[in-house]
Amino acid sequence: MGNPNETKMVDILWGGYYTYHTSEGHYSVFRLLDFTPYGYHAALFKERFSEKPQISAVESLGPTIGHVPLDSKRLYYEDMQVIGHSVLVEEELDGYGIYLKHHGYSEEQISELLGNLINKQPAWTASDSLADTR
């Protein structure tokens, strides 16, 4: 984990594949579906890698968990690295849509939000000061 007293910049890449080195000594991968100052939404992959994977090793994999909400502070304090990107498609956002429905979003709101994610400009940089806005 990084130093919580240092400002860290994080590349936010909707549809981006991120990897990080775990405490067990391997690399794990997730795909960023959405990001807010308070949390991010990701698809998780079960595969573990002994070395930092290349995008070609993960593009053809399917996520084990299609959606999970996570605290955005995790992006800032772990050594996350973007290894690649592809545009999100509707099917990849099904789990996020279910999550939104269970949190009171209307079908119209869900459709609009997911449509915006599919058409979103892929890159943005955030600082960890966003993680302290609660």
Describe the structure.
The chain has 134 residues and is an alpha+beta fold. The protein has one domain (9-124). It has 4 helices and 7 strands. The strands form 2 sheets. A 5-stranded antiparallel beta sheet has the order 5-4-3-2-6. It has a two-stranded antiparallel ribbon with strand order 1-7. A hairpin with a 3-residue loop joins β3 and β4. The two termini are 21 Å apart.
Per-chain topology:
Elements: E1 9-13, E2 16-21, E3 27-35, E4 39-44, H1 55-58, E5 65-71, H2 73-77, E6 81-85, H3 94-102, H4 107-118, E7 123-127
Antiparallel strand pairs: 1-7, 2-3, 2-6, 3-4, 4-5
Helix pairs in contact: 3-4
Features:
22% helix; disordered C terminus; 4 helices; two-stranded antiparallel ribbon; 5-stranded antiparallel β-sheet; alpha+beta; 134 residues
Tally of separate domains? 1
Order the strands across the largest sheet as they lie in space: 5-4-3-2-6
Q: Helix count?
A: 4
Sheet having the most strands: 5 strands, antiparallel
Count of DSSP strands: 7
**Order of SSEs:** EEEEHEHEHHE
Alpha carbon gap, first and last residue: 21 Å
Strand content: 25-35%
Identify low-pLDDT runs: 128-134
Rg measurement, Å: 15 Å
Determine the mean pLDDT. 84
Helical residues, percent: 10-25%
Brief synopsis:
This protein has 134 residues and is an alpha+beta fold.
